[in-house]
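Fold it.
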Amino acid sequence: MNDTAKFSETLIALYGKSRKDSLLLCTALENEDYGLQAMPEVSPPKWHLAHTSWFYETFVLKPFVVDYRPFNAHYEYLFNSYYHGVGMQYPRAQRGLLSRPTVKEVYDYREYVDRAMSDLLAQTKHAERDTIVQRCELGINHEQQHQELLCTDIKYSFSFNPLFPALGKNQQVVTSKQQAMNFVSFDAEEAVIGYRGEGFHFDNEEVAHRIHLPAFRLANRLVTNAEYLAFIDDGGYEKPALWLADGWDWKQKNNAAHPRYWLQKDEQWYEYTLYGLQPVNPDQPVSHVNYYEADACARWFDKRLPREQEWEAACLRQKCEPAHFPVSLHPAAAEGNNEILQMFGCLWQWTQSSYTPYPGYQPAKGAIGEYNGKFMCNQIVLRGSSCVTPPGHARPSYRNFFYPKDQWQFSGIRLADDLL
Protein backbone atom coordinates (compact mmCIF):
# COMPACT_ATOMS: atom_id res chain seq x y z
CA MET A 1 0.00 0.00 0.00
CA ASN A 2 1.48 3.39 -0.99
CA ASP A 3 1.60 6.48 1.24
CA THR A 4 -1.37 8.09 -0.50
CA ALA A 5 -3.57 5.04 0.12
CA LYS A 6 -2.45 4.87 3.77
CA PHE A 7 -3.26 8.54 4.22
CA SER A 8 -6.68 7.97 2.66
CA GLU A 9 -7.40 5.14 5.08
CA THR A 10 -6.32 7.31 8.01
CA LEU A 11 -8.55 10.15 6.89
CA ILE A 12 -11.53 7.83 6.42
CA ALA A 13 -10.94 6.45 9.93
CA LEU A 14 -10.76 9.94 11.46
CA TYR A 15 -13.89 10.94 9.61
CA GLY A 16 -15.73 7.83 10.78
CA LYS A 17 -14.68 8.28 14.41
CA SER A 18 -15.84 11.89 14.51
CA ARG A 19 -19.22 10.89 13.09
CA LYS A 20 -19.64 8.04 15.57
CA ASP A 21 -18.64 10.26 18.49
CA SER A 22 -21.57 12.55 17.74
CA LEU A 23 -23.98 9.64 17.89
CA LEU A 24 -22.43 8.31 21.10
CA LEU A 25 -23.27 11.59 22.82
CA CYS A 26 -26.92 10.99 21.92
CA THR A 27 -27.23 7.46 23.29
CA ALA A 28 -28.82 8.70 26.52
CA LEU A 29 -31.35 10.89 24.70
CA GLU A 30 -34.96 9.97 24.17
CA ASN A 31 -36.78 10.97 21.00
CA GLU A 32 -38.49 13.79 22.88
CA ASP A 33 -35.09 15.30 23.75
CA TYR A 34 -33.88 15.71 20.18
CA GLY A 35 -36.00 18.79 19.48
CA LEU A 36 -35.34 20.82 22.65
CA GLN A 37 -34.34 24.46 22.20
CA ALA A 38 -34.72 26.61 25.30
CA MET A 39 -33.30 29.83 23.79
CA PRO A 40 -32.26 31.10 20.35
CA GLU A 41 -28.54 30.68 21.10
CA VAL A 42 -28.78 26.92 21.57
CA SER A 43 -29.78 24.34 18.99
CA PRO A 44 -31.66 21.04 19.34
CA PRO A 45 -29.54 17.86 19.23
CA LYS A 46 -31.31 16.82 16.03
CA TRP A 47 -30.26 20.04 14.35
CA HIS A 48 -26.60 19.53 15.31
CA LEU A 49 -26.66 16.03 13.80
CA ALA A 50 -28.21 17.31 10.59
CA HIS A 51 -26.15 20.49 10.26
CA THR A 52 -22.82 18.67 10.49
CA SER A 53 -24.00 16.46 7.62
CA TRP A 54 -25.15 19.53 5.70
CA PHE A 55 -21.63 20.93 6.05
CA TYR A 56 -20.07 17.95 4.24
CA GLU A 57 -22.82 17.89 1.65
CA THR A 58 -22.45 21.62 0.93
CA PHE A 59 -18.68 22.11 1.03
CA VAL A 60 -17.36 18.69 -0.04
CA LEU A 61 -19.87 16.48 -1.83
CA LYS A 62 -21.70 18.98 -4.02
CA PRO A 63 -18.53 20.70 -5.29
CA PHE A 64 -16.43 17.56 -5.87
CA VAL A 65 -18.79 14.68 -6.72
CA VAL A 66 -20.08 14.72 -10.27
CA ASP A 67 -23.90 14.57 -10.43
CA TYR A 68 -24.19 14.37 -6.64
CA ARG A 69 -27.84 14.24 -5.60
CA PRO A 70 -28.60 15.84 -2.19
CA PHE A 71 -30.52 13.68 0.26
CA ASN A 72 -33.28 16.29 0.44
CA ALA A 73 -33.13 19.65 -1.33
CA HIS A 74 -35.07 21.32 1.51
CA TYR A 75 -32.24 20.52 3.94
CA GLU A 76 -30.05 23.05 2.11
CA TYR A 77 -32.24 25.72 3.72
CA LEU A 78 -33.22 24.03 6.98
CA PHE A 79 -29.70 23.21 8.16
CA ASN A 80 -27.63 26.12 6.89
CA SER A 81 -26.37 27.85 10.03
CA TYR A 82 -25.00 31.25 8.95
CA TYR A 83 -23.42 30.88 5.51
CA HIS A 84 -25.04 33.68 3.57
CA GLY A 85 -22.84 32.94 0.57
CA VAL A 86 -24.57 29.56 0.23
CA GLY A 87 -28.17 30.69 0.53
CA MET A 88 -30.99 31.50 2.93
CA GLN A 89 -31.21 30.01 6.42
CA TYR A 90 -34.17 28.81 8.46
CA PRO A 91 -34.53 31.20 11.44
CA ARG A 92 -32.14 30.19 14.22
CA ALA A 93 -34.60 30.91 17.02
CA GLN A 94 -37.16 28.53 15.48
CA ARG A 95 -35.02 25.39 15.08
CA GLY A 96 -36.92 23.78 17.94
CA LEU A 97 -40.11 23.93 15.85
CA LEU A 98 -38.72 21.48 13.29
CA SER A 99 -40.51 18.32 14.36
CA ARG A 100 -39.87 17.14 10.82
CA PRO A 101 -37.61 15.73 9.56
CA THR A 102 -37.92 13.04 12.19
CA VAL A 103 -35.00 11.76 14.24
CA LYS A 104 -34.91 8.63 12.07
CA GLU A 105 -34.80 10.73 8.91
CA VAL A 106 -31.88 12.74 10.28
CA TYR A 107 -30.02 9.52 11.08
CA ASP A 108 -30.77 8.29 7.56
CA TYR A 109 -29.41 11.59 6.24
CA ARG A 110 -26.17 11.05 8.13
CA GLU A 111 -25.79 7.53 6.72
CA TYR A 112 -26.41 8.81 3.19
CA VAL A 113 -23.72 11.47 3.57
CA ASP A 114 -21.30 9.03 5.20
CA ARG A 115 -21.54 6.59 2.30
CA ALA A 116 -20.89 9.35 -0.22
CA MET A 117 -17.97 10.73 1.81
CA SER A 118 -16.36 7.30 2.15
CA ASP A 119 -16.56 6.79 -1.60
CA LEU A 120 -15.07 10.23 -2.27
CA LEU A 121 -12.22 9.92 0.23
CA ALA A 122 -11.26 6.55 -1.28
CA GLN A 123 -10.56 8.25 -4.61
CA THR A 124 -6.83 8.80 -4.13
CA LYS A 125 -6.36 10.22 -7.66
CA HIS A 126 -9.15 12.79 -7.63
CA ALA A 127 -8.06 15.97 -9.44
CA GLU A 128 -9.06 18.12 -6.46
CA ARG A 129 -7.63 15.74 -3.86
CA ASP A 130 -5.76 18.37 -1.80
CA THR A 131 -8.78 20.65 -1.51
CA ILE A 132 -11.03 17.73 -0.59
CA VAL A 133 -8.63 16.70 2.19
CA GLN A 134 -8.52 20.27 3.54
CA ARG A 135 -12.30 20.54 3.52
CA CYS A 136 -12.64 17.14 5.18
CA GLU A 137 -10.20 18.10 7.95
CA LEU A 138 -12.21 21.26 8.52
CA GLY A 139 -15.41 19.21 8.54
CA ILE A 140 -14.04 16.82 11.16
CA ASN A 141 -13.03 19.69 13.43
CA HIS A 142 -16.33 21.42 12.74
CA GLU A 143 -18.23 18.32 13.85
CA GLN A 144 -16.12 18.10 16.99
CA GLN A 145 -17.02 21.70 17.81
CA HIS A 146 -20.67 20.74 17.48
CA GLN A 147 -20.15 17.78 19.82
CA GLU A 148 -19.18 20.27 22.51
CA LEU A 149 -22.10 22.50 21.60
CA LEU A 150 -24.46 19.54 21.75
CA CYS A 151 -23.45 18.97 25.40
CA THR A 152 -23.71 22.63 26.38
CA ASP A 153 -26.98 23.12 24.51
CA ILE A 154 -28.78 20.08 25.90
CA LYS A 155 -27.62 21.02 29.40
CA TYR A 156 -29.22 24.42 29.03
CA SER A 157 -32.46 22.98 27.69
CA PHE A 158 -32.54 20.20 30.31
CA SER A 159 -32.01 22.74 33.10
CA PHE A 160 -35.56 24.05 32.72
CA ASN A 161 -36.99 20.64 33.57
CA PRO A 162 -37.70 20.28 37.33
CA LEU A 163 -36.83 16.58 37.00
CA PHE A 164 -33.22 17.65 36.28
CA PRO A 165 -32.53 14.89 33.72
CA ALA A 166 -28.98 13.57 33.35
CA LEU A 167 -27.13 13.05 30.09
CA GLY A 168 -24.52 10.90 31.82
CA LYS A 169 -25.01 8.17 34.38
CA ASN A 170 -26.33 9.92 37.47
CA GLN A 171 -23.55 9.89 40.00
CA GLN A 172 -22.14 12.00 42.79
CA VAL A 173 -19.40 14.18 41.34
CA VAL A 174 -16.29 13.54 43.44
CA THR A 175 -13.37 15.94 43.62
CA SER A 176 -10.22 16.25 45.69
CA LYS A 177 -9.35 19.12 48.01
CA GLN A 178 -8.43 22.23 46.07
CA GLN A 179 -4.90 23.59 46.23
CA ALA A 180 -4.26 27.00 47.70
CA MET A 181 -4.33 29.83 45.18
CA ASN A 182 -1.03 31.52 44.45
CA PHE A 183 0.36 33.52 41.56
CA VAL A 184 3.12 32.59 39.14
CA SER A 185 5.26 35.46 37.86
CA PHE A 186 6.30 35.92 34.23
CA ASP A 187 8.95 38.39 33.17
CA ALA A 188 8.50 40.76 30.26
CA GLU A 189 9.34 39.18 26.90
CA GLU A 190 9.07 39.44 23.16
CA ALA A 191 6.50 36.68 22.73
CA VAL A 192 5.35 34.92 19.55
CA ILE A 193 1.56 34.51 19.55
CA GLY A 194 -0.42 32.33 17.15
CA TYR A 195 -0.23 28.86 15.66
CA ARG A 196 3.23 27.75 14.51
CA GLY A 197 2.86 24.00 14.00
CA GLU A 198 2.22 21.82 10.96
CA GLY A 199 -1.12 20.25 11.93
CA PHE A 200 -4.69 21.37 11.54
CA HIS A 201 -5.68 24.70 13.06
CA PHE A 202 -8.41 27.27 12.47
CA ASP A 203 -7.71 30.38 10.45
CA ASN A 204 -8.34 32.68 13.45
CA GLU A 205 -5.14 31.28 15.05
CA GLU A 206 -3.11 32.91 12.26
CA VAL A 207 -0.86 34.73 11.62
CA ALA A 208 1.83 33.97 14.21
CA HIS A 209 3.31 37.31 15.20
CA ARG A 210 5.68 38.85 17.71
CA ILE A 211 4.49 41.21 20.45
CA HIS A 212 6.05 42.85 23.48
CA LEU A 213 4.51 41.37 26.60
CA PRO A 214 5.00 43.28 29.88
CA ALA A 215 5.61 41.33 33.08
CA PHE A 216 2.50 39.79 34.64
CA ARG A 217 1.27 37.21 37.13
CA LEU A 218 -1.21 34.41 36.56
CA ALA A 219 -3.14 32.41 39.15
CA ASN A 220 -2.03 28.80 39.50
CA ARG A 221 -5.64 27.54 39.29
CA LEU A 222 -9.20 28.61 38.58
CA VAL A 223 -11.51 30.36 41.02
CA THR A 224 -13.50 27.82 43.06
CA ASN A 225 -17.16 27.63 44.02
CA ALA A 226 -16.19 28.47 47.62
CA GLU A 227 -14.35 31.60 46.51
CA TYR A 228 -17.17 32.66 44.25
CA LEU A 229 -19.68 32.07 47.04
CA ALA A 230 -17.60 34.42 49.20
CA PHE A 231 -17.94 37.01 46.42
CA ILE A 232 -21.72 36.50 46.47
CA ASP A 233 -21.96 36.62 50.27
CA ASP A 234 -19.96 39.85 50.32
CA GLY A 235 -22.59 41.47 48.10
CA GLY A 236 -20.62 41.10 44.88
CA TYR A 237 -23.80 41.21 42.79
CA GLU A 238 -24.96 44.36 44.57
CA LYS A 239 -21.90 46.58 44.23
CA PRO A 240 -21.96 48.65 41.01
CA ALA A 241 -18.30 49.61 41.45
CA LEU A 242 -17.30 46.02 40.65
CA TRP A 243 -19.19 45.87 37.38
CA LEU A 244 -18.69 47.17 33.88
CA ALA A 245 -21.58 49.41 32.80
CA ASP A 246 -22.87 46.84 30.29
CA GLY A 247 -22.45 44.14 32.90
CA TRP A 248 -24.46 46.06 35.51
CA ASP A 249 -27.23 46.59 32.97
CA TRP A 250 -27.21 42.85 32.21
CA LYS A 251 -27.31 42.00 35.92
CA GLN A 252 -30.19 44.37 36.61
CA LYS A 253 -32.20 43.26 33.60
CA ASN A 254 -31.80 39.56 34.43
CA ASN A 255 -31.92 39.82 38.24
CA ALA A 256 -28.65 37.88 38.26
CA ALA A 257 -27.43 36.84 41.70
CA HIS A 258 -25.43 33.62 41.15
CA PRO A 259 -23.89 31.46 38.39
CA ARG A 260 -26.05 29.75 35.84
CA TYR A 261 -27.40 26.38 37.09
CA TRP A 262 -27.10 27.26 40.78
CA LEU A 263 -30.25 27.11 42.88
CA GLN A 264 -30.85 27.37 46.60
CA LYS A 265 -33.22 25.29 48.67
CA ASP A 266 -33.34 24.62 52.41
CA GLU A 267 -30.49 27.15 52.78
CA GLN A 268 -28.16 24.99 50.70
CA TRP A 269 -26.77 25.67 47.25
CA TYR A 270 -27.20 23.09 44.51
CA GLU A 271 -25.90 22.98 40.96
CA TYR A 272 -27.50 21.36 37.96
CA THR A 273 -24.96 19.20 36.11
CA LEU A 274 -25.17 16.74 33.25
CA TYR A 275 -25.04 14.07 35.95
CA GLY A 276 -28.17 15.57 37.52
CA LEU A 277 -28.65 17.93 40.46
CA GLN A 278 -25.67 18.01 42.84
CA PRO A 279 -24.78 19.98 46.00
CA VAL A 280 -22.37 22.77 45.11
CA ASN A 281 -18.90 21.39 45.80
CA PRO A 282 -16.72 24.13 47.33
CA ASP A 283 -13.52 22.75 45.76
CA GLN A 284 -14.74 22.57 42.19
CA PRO A 285 -14.04 25.52 39.90
CA VAL A 286 -16.99 27.83 39.48
CA SER A 287 -18.50 27.33 36.04
CA HIS A 288 -21.09 28.85 33.71
CA VAL A 289 -20.28 32.44 34.56
CA ASN A 290 -20.26 35.04 31.81
CA TYR A 291 -17.63 37.68 31.06
CA TYR A 292 -19.39 40.30 33.16
CA GLU A 293 -19.48 38.01 36.20
CA ALA A 294 -15.88 36.91 35.69
CA ASP A 295 -14.70 40.51 35.40
CA ALA A 296 -16.64 41.62 38.51
CA CYS A 297 -15.29 38.68 40.52
CA ALA A 298 -11.74 39.50 39.44
CA ARG A 299 -12.21 43.11 40.61
CA TRP A 300 -13.52 41.81 43.94
CA PHE A 301 -10.23 39.92 44.29
CA ASP A 302 -8.43 43.18 43.38
CA LYS A 303 -7.14 41.38 40.29
CA ARG A 304 -8.10 41.27 36.60
CA LEU A 305 -8.70 38.72 33.87
CA PRO A 306 -5.69 37.72 31.77
CA ARG A 307 -5.11 39.01 28.29
CA GLU A 308 -5.24 36.22 25.73
CA GLN A 309 -1.58 36.79 24.81
CA GLU A 310 -0.59 36.41 28.49
CA TRP A 311 -2.52 33.16 28.72
CA GLU A 312 -0.88 31.70 25.61
CA ALA A 313 2.62 32.85 26.57
CA ALA A 314 2.26 31.43 30.09
CA CYS A 315 0.99 28.14 28.68
CA LEU A 316 3.99 27.86 26.36
CA ARG A 317 6.56 28.90 28.97
CA GLN A 318 5.12 26.44 31.49
CA LYS A 319 4.93 23.73 28.80
CA CYS A 320 1.25 23.15 29.64
CA GLU A 321 0.58 20.72 26.83
CA PRO A 322 -2.92 19.24 26.86
CA ALA A 323 -3.08 15.67 28.07
CA HIS A 324 -5.26 13.02 26.42
CA PHE A 325 -7.91 13.62 29.04
CA PRO A 326 -11.24 11.82 28.78
CA VAL A 327 -14.27 13.94 28.03
CA SER A 328 -16.23 14.32 31.26
CA LEU A 329 -19.54 16.08 31.86
CA HIS A 330 -18.43 18.28 34.75
CA PRO A 331 -15.22 20.16 35.62
CA ALA A 332 -12.99 18.81 38.38
CA ALA A 333 -10.58 20.24 40.93
CA ALA A 334 -6.96 20.91 40.04
CA GLU A 335 -4.54 18.00 40.04
CA GLY A 336 -0.95 17.69 38.92
CA ASN A 337 2.54 18.92 39.69
CA ASN A 338 2.84 21.88 37.33
CA GLU A 339 3.01 25.40 38.71
CA ILE A 340 -0.09 26.31 36.71
CA LEU A 341 -3.03 23.90 36.66
CA GLN A 342 -6.35 23.54 34.81
CA MET A 343 -5.17 25.20 31.63
CA PHE A 344 -6.87 22.45 29.62
CA GLY A 345 -9.73 20.01 30.04
CA CYS A 346 -11.58 21.82 32.83
CA LEU A 347 -13.22 25.10 31.80
CA TRP A 348 -12.85 27.67 29.07
CA GLN A 349 -11.28 30.72 30.68
CA TRP A 350 -12.45 34.24 30.02
CA THR A 351 -9.78 36.72 28.97
CA GLN A 352 -10.16 40.48 28.75
CA SER A 353 -9.28 40.40 25.05
CA SER A 354 -11.71 41.31 22.30
CA TYR A 355 -12.04 38.80 19.49
CA THR A 356 -10.27 40.58 16.65
CA PRO A 357 -8.05 39.40 13.78
CA TYR A 358 -4.31 38.98 14.20
CA PRO A 359 -2.04 41.12 12.00
CA GLY A 360 -2.02 39.68 8.49
CA TYR A 361 -5.14 37.57 8.97
CA GLN A 362 -6.96 36.72 5.75
CA PRO A 363 -10.18 34.66 5.71
CA ALA A 364 -10.57 31.97 3.08
CA LYS A 365 -12.20 32.89 -0.20
CA GLY A 366 -15.87 32.14 -0.79
CA ALA A 367 -18.60 31.07 1.60
CA ILE A 368 -16.30 28.85 3.65
CA GLY A 369 -14.44 32.01 4.65
CA GLU A 370 -17.47 32.90 6.79
CA TYR A 371 -16.41 30.23 9.29
CA ASN A 372 -14.58 32.53 11.74
CA GLY A 373 -13.80 35.94 10.31
CA LYS A 374 -17.35 37.31 10.22
CA PHE A 375 -17.65 36.96 14.01
CA MET A 376 -14.68 39.18 14.86
CA CYS A 377 -16.83 41.88 16.43
CA ASN A 378 -18.30 42.40 19.93
CA GLN A 379 -17.13 39.05 21.29
CA ILE A 380 -14.56 38.06 23.91
CA VAL A 381 -11.80 35.45 23.60
CA LEU A 382 -11.72 32.43 25.90
CA ARG A 383 -8.67 30.18 26.18
CA GLY A 384 -7.97 26.60 27.24
CA SER A 385 -10.69 23.98 26.86
CA SER A 386 -13.50 22.51 28.93
CA CYS A 387 -14.48 19.13 30.32
CA VAL A 388 -16.64 18.53 27.22
CA THR A 389 -14.09 19.73 24.65
CA PRO A 390 -12.80 17.05 22.26
CA PRO A 391 -9.07 16.59 23.01
CA GLY A 392 -7.89 17.78 19.59
CA HIS A 393 -9.31 21.22 20.32
CA ALA A 394 -7.09 21.84 23.33
CA ARG A 395 -3.95 23.67 22.25
CA PRO A 396 -2.19 26.86 23.38
CA SER A 397 -3.18 28.89 20.31
CA TYR A 398 -6.88 27.87 20.15
CA ARG A 399 -9.18 30.92 20.30
CA ASN A 400 -12.73 30.32 21.47
CA PHE A 401 -15.10 33.28 21.49
CA PHE A 402 -18.50 34.19 22.90
CA TYR A 403 -20.55 37.26 23.66
CA PRO A 404 -19.99 38.81 27.12
CA LYS A 405 -23.47 37.85 28.33
CA ASP A 406 -23.15 34.14 27.46
CA GLN A 407 -23.35 31.80 30.46
CA TRP A 408 -24.36 28.46 29.01
CA GLN A 409 -20.84 27.48 27.99
CA PHE A 410 -18.49 25.70 30.41
CA SER A 411 -16.63 28.90 31.24
CA GLY A 412 -14.68 29.83 34.36
CA ILE A 413 -12.30 32.38 35.88
CA ARG A 414 -8.52 32.58 36.09
CA LEU A 415 -7.10 35.67 37.80
CA ALA A 416 -4.18 37.77 36.66
CA ASP A 417 -2.46 41.01 37.57
CA ASP A 418 0.41 43.23 36.53
CA LEU A 419 3.92 42.67 37.79
CA LEU A 420 5.40 46.15 38.19
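DSSP finds nine helices and twelve strands in the chain.
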